[in-house]
Amino acid sequence: MLLEHKNAVVYGGAGSVGRAVARAFAREGARVFLAGRTLATLDEVAEEISSAGGAVETAQVDALDELAIDEHADAVAEKAGGIDVSFNAISHGDVHGAPLIEMSFEDFARPITTAMRTQFLTTKAAARHMTKQGSGVIIAITATTARLAIPEVGGTGVTFDAIESLCRQWACELGRHGVRVVWLQTTGLPEAIADTVLPAYGTGSGNGMTRAELIAWLQRSTQLNRLTSLAEVGNVAAFIASDHAGAMTAAAANITCGQSPAR
Known about the structure:
Layout: E1 7-11, H1 16-27, E2 31-36, H2 39-51, E3 55-60, H3 66-80, E4 85-88, H4 105-133, E5 136-143, H5 156-174, E6 179-186, H6 211-219, H7 230-241, E7 251-255
Parallel strand pairs: 1-2, 1-4, 2-3, 4-5, 5-6, 6-7
């Protein structure tokens, strides 16, 4: 197993991405610590993982609260003997479907400030323990919106650009301590798109799209004519967290089905 004897913290562990990554980590032998705001939904994920034979624990943690993050990281490190992997999958409060000229600054800036706060604080908390042990992997998630100019996505593209830049900065400072920082770059994730009529996503038309129309529109922009699956996100995250990817840091794992060219 790729992650046997590893301790992994997953922030936003009850969301679709966090759940997929936590399942993959546990399947590969990691002891998984799920963190999030709502304990009931975290417990549902934990039950699913434990029923499959995985080792998992849950904790109610606000991933924007510095004290709560630090206390949780300290508790995990003390109980488990260290933190080997930290993955942040919390949502950012993005607003889509309106041009910037009609959007309030608050709606535009919310995902940027939320992402920067949570990514900085959770990385710092994990890095305090990883640098002491001389090893560890910190993983973030972005999407092709960081590389493609798509209208009517508000602050999402800027947010993903900022996450990638922050990851590079952490990587250059933590690498000397044996800590790697990598981000997963995905397409839109069809399993995470709500089954409702959606705002015009990147079309500039001002008309709504059904879920099927949105997915078809996104698929046409990839070289494989399909989108990244949640299972693929989990599988790649597990590989990146493993020693098999030990030479990889300050870089994206491009799983965009060819939508975003490597840089």
